[in-house]
Amino acid sequence: MYMNDRMLCSRIVIFVLALLCLYSCGQNPPLQEKDIVKNPVQLAKHISGDLKSLLLEACSQGGRLNDSVTLRYCRLDSAFYEGRNNQSLWSEHGRWLPMGDSLYDFIRNSKEYGLFPEDYHYKAISFIHRALADSFARNNAVLWTRADILLTDAFFGLVKDVKQGRLAFDSVTLRTDSILPDSFFIRNLEAAVQSGSVKTAMDSLEPRYAGYDSLRQYLGSFLRTARFKPFTYLFYPYGDSVEFFRLLQKRLHEISLVASDSAAMDTSAMTKAIRKYQKEKGLKPTGRISEAMVDMLNNTDLLKFKRIALTLDRYKLLPDTLPHTYLWVNLPSFYLQVINSDTIVFESKIIVGAPKTRTPLLTSEISNFVTLPQWTVPYSIIFKEMLPKIQKNIDFLKKENLMVVDQDDNVVDPSKIKWSKLSKNHFPYQLKQQQGDNNSLGVIKFNFRNKYSVYMHDTNVRGKFAQAFRALSHGCVRVKEWEKLSDFLIRNDTIRYKPDTLRAWIKRQEKHTVSGFQRLPVYIRYFGCAGKNGQIRFYEDIYGEDKVLLEKYFADKTVN
After folding, report:
1. Pseudo-torsion of CA 320, 325, 331, 335, nearest 10°?
2. In sequence order, what are the beta bridge partners of 446?
3. What is the pLDDT of residue 468?
4. What pLDDT sits at residue 458?
5. pLDDT of residue 128
6. Element containing residue 531 per DSSP (H, E)
7. Measured between alpha carbons, how far is 157 from 63 in angstroms, rounded to an integer?
8. pLDDT at 293
9. Contact at 8 Å (CB) between 63 and 70?
10. Residue 425 Cα distances to 419, 421, 422, angstroms
11. DSSP states of 451-503 as a string?
12. Cα 171 from chain centroid?
């Protein structure tokens, strides 16, 4: 008898805890005790009535079930259940259906898709899941009702995020379906029910790109070894030095470099700890904070996961299919690839815009290329870099192989110009670099229409391709394998262009404009990581693009 009393008390405690969890702060008054049913067959009738009333109440409060749970698709949830006469979908007669278990498992493991389980009511659903394991709570229609609603709302959220991602559409987004119709969500839910597999339904929504597939494939290996212990994030450069060093001390304590995360530290102790960290990580042991050190401290497994999630979402901003043949430029990787039939024909090292003169993200197509091009210096470069040097020493023009031309394109003797009188507001000339191997554009230039006046080209400083960090240009993309690219463009026109035609022109220093070939689509994008050689490779966030988006979309996200 005593044991039965203990079991009853235990069940009552579980039930009360469940109600407290579900009705925090009294925002939603609990349903009456009549929803505790003795016969599981009666659950369906109770759940049907509770579904209708609970969704009506939640939608009247902006989707809020309680202070900690808000439905993302309350209106759609209501329409869906109304269409099935408010019958539960994920359970029956006090038991989870296989589809209910399938969806619960998918949410729990959604990080394998670069998603955060918490975005799909995982905490609330897992709590109810545990509570319903008790036979007493299993007869509570309230729990089954809320579980069903949360699972359906989570499914719709997964459909949206697997298909479109979480990033706002931007100027280079090529998707046209910015708003998914209700029918799309319902159709995918019905497909999942029909197939009996949530995973199959979700997999059908993912992008179909080799880069996306490889990143997803290696994400599993990353997750198996990742440690998602929360660490203190450091913002740099900092405004409040006192606050920054307080957080730095806390961060160094987390990796056992200082004894306390709060006890006062003198400058020498902090310097010693910083120097020790720098030595361990192969940084110059200055004892002073640097951007490189802060980036290293912030580069936790959680941050890496967020960068993977961000990159997967960037793929979802592309159209469902790309052209059969195209050129892909990934700025942080410092590489371009020519793709044909989903196969990399060749790839090339590139030099991209420096952080202060970024290469823009864009979509275009190569329409022609020019051998032995002449470089007309943009006025932005003239005024920011060249004019002060010319005013200091006119020999700068000769050193850089530059000639001065007037508005009629006549060459002007630079010694007859009063350079000290010229400025941004008065400069009636152009500076042009004579064609040849010493030209900044090298011996070839690839043109594609864009509003930024950037292009791809060879370079006269080819040794810089050997550098690891290649964000060095004024915005244009310098291509190491320019010969392979030019040959590829004219590959189908062997009548006009014999195998050695281009090389002969260049050898004879001849300027030619080549067009008439099938235009090659160009995609210049910013993807911070990639799956390569069995692992995920992370690229330096050269323009801080990842950092901005991570703070905007994933700052408070955690991985359970």
Report:
1. 140
2. 369, 456
3. 94
4. 96
5. 93
6. strand 529-532
7. 14
8. 93
9. yes
10. 13, 10, 8
11. TT---EE--S-GGGGGSS--EEESSSEEETTHHHHHHHHTTT-TTTS-TTHHH
12. 15
Distance CA 304, CA 306 (A): 5
The radius of gyration of the chain's CA atoms, rounded to the nearest angstrom, is 31
Joined together, the tokens standing for residue 104 give 């619960």
pLDDT score at 11? 52
| Residue linked to tokens 């949530």 | 198
Helix (H) or strand (E) holding 189: helix 182-195
pLDDT means per 10 residues, the chain with 560 residues, are: 47 47 44 61 86 93 90 97 95 92 96 97 94 82 93 98 95 89 96 94 95 95 90 89 94 93 92 94 93 90 96 96 96 97 95 96 97 90 92 91 89 91 92 85 96 94 95 96 97 89 93 95 98 93 94 89
Residues linked to residue 70 through DSSP beta bridges, in sequence order:
64
Question: 189 is written with which tokens?
Answer: 């839910």
- Determine the longest span between alpha carbons in the chain, in angstroms: 112
Evaluate whether 460 touches 439 at the Cβ level (below 8 Å).
Answer: yes
Packing angle between helix 43-60 and helix 141-164, nearest 10 degrees?
60
DSSP-derived 3-state class of residue 110: helix
pLDDT computed for residue 94 by the predictor: 87
Report residue 359 as tokens: 């290469």
What is the Cα 102 distance to its own chain's centre? 28
Specify the pLDDT at position 28: 44
Residue the block writes with tokens 């349903």: 31
Q: Which of 168, 198, 242 has its CA nearest to residue 103?
A: 198
For residue 499, say if its preceding peptide bond is cis, omega within 30 degrees of 0: no
CA distance 347 to 340: 12
For the chain, the helix, strand and coil percentages under 3-state DSSP, each to the nearest 5: 45, 15, 40
Amino acid occupying residue 303: L
User: Taking Cα atoms as reference points, which of 343, 362, 334 lies closest to residue 472?
Assistant: 334
Cβ atoms of 286 and 141 closer than 8 Å: no
pLDDT attached to residue 434: 82
Strand pairing partners for 425?
Answer: none
Taking alpha carbons only, the member of 149, 184, 158 closest to residue 59 is 149
Nearest to 443 by CA among 524, 371, 377, 513: 371
Q: What is the model's pTM?
A: 0.86
Count the residues in the chain. 560
Q: Could you tell me if residue 549 is left (phi over 0), alpha (psi between -120 and 50 degrees) or otherwise beta?
A: alpha
